[in-house]
Design a protein that fits this description.
225 residues; mainly alpha; two-stranded antiparallel sheet; 72% helix; disordered C terminus; membrane; transmembrane helix; transmembrane
Length: 225
């Protein structure tokens, strides 16, 4: 199967998953937030909250599963997971905009996840993360398709790790205050941007870094030609 075909199939799956996810959210908001999804949020019943936690975990498992099916090696599976996650996240907001004309803007606060604590940020933040993930994953898959390897090293891993930690920190910072505050609580944009830059740098270094095997094979190819 050609790379483009496989990417499109995974994208269709992620878009359908986003439709399903947004439809469930529409039902929940109609039931528990009929006057609008605004902060401070009204607490939902504990039973529903537990089901919500399971639904979020199930969503990640499904995205991981399709990535495992689409890829043959770890780098491919990792790239397909990042791609499907990014597409799913962006289309989740697009479907909500179609269904209930929400969010009002990209700076509208949203409750992103509940595991292990509530993640809250303007919609723009996860959308920016998703754009980075989609871009990286497509470039990585194109590199793998032509037989080149993506080598994971400590520097890139640490850049990604620190970046992800900062991004998550910006999402959960003062989450109790953000959940219960009547007036908007300022999002930690500087922490988020620093994390996004570090994560992006680490991811794209994987693509641009040439390992010794690539250099040798290219030199041999040039010599033979």
């Amino acid at each position: 199967m050609k790379l483009l075909t496989k990417i499109l199939i995974v994208a269709f799956f992620a878009i359908a998953m986003a439709y399903l996810e947004s439809a469930v959210v529409v039902y929940l908001r109609e039931l528990y937030y009929p006057d609008g999804f605004t902060f401070p949020l009204k607490l939902i019943p504990e039973k529903i909250l537990i089901i919500e936690l399971g639904r979020e975990l199930a969503t990640i498992i499904m995205l991981l599963t399709v990535a495992m099916i689409a890829g043959n090696v770890f780098a491919e599976r990792f790239s397909y997971f990042l791609f499907s996650f990014g597409v799913w996240d962006i289309f989740y907001y697009l479907w909500l905009k179609v269904f209930i004309n929400w969010p009002d803007s990209l700076l509208t606060d949203d409750l992103l996840f509940l595991i292990p604590v509530p993640w809250i940020s303007p919609v723009l933040a996860p959308v920016l993360v998703s754009i980075v993930l989609i871009t990286f994953s497509i470039l990585a898959l194109m590199k793998l398709e032509v037989g080149l390897r993506i080598k994971f090293d400590k520097i890139n891993f640490l850049l990604i790790l620190f970046g992800v930690v900062l991004i998550l920190l910006s999402f959960v910072w003062d989450f109790e205050k953000r959940l219960n505050s009547v007036s908007p609580v300022e999002f930690m944009w500087m922490i988020f941007i620093c994390g996004l830059v570090l994560m992006s740098l680490g991811l794209f270094r994987f693509i641009t870094k040439k390992n010794k095997e690539e250099s040798i094979s290219r030199k041999e190819a040039e010599t033979q030609s």
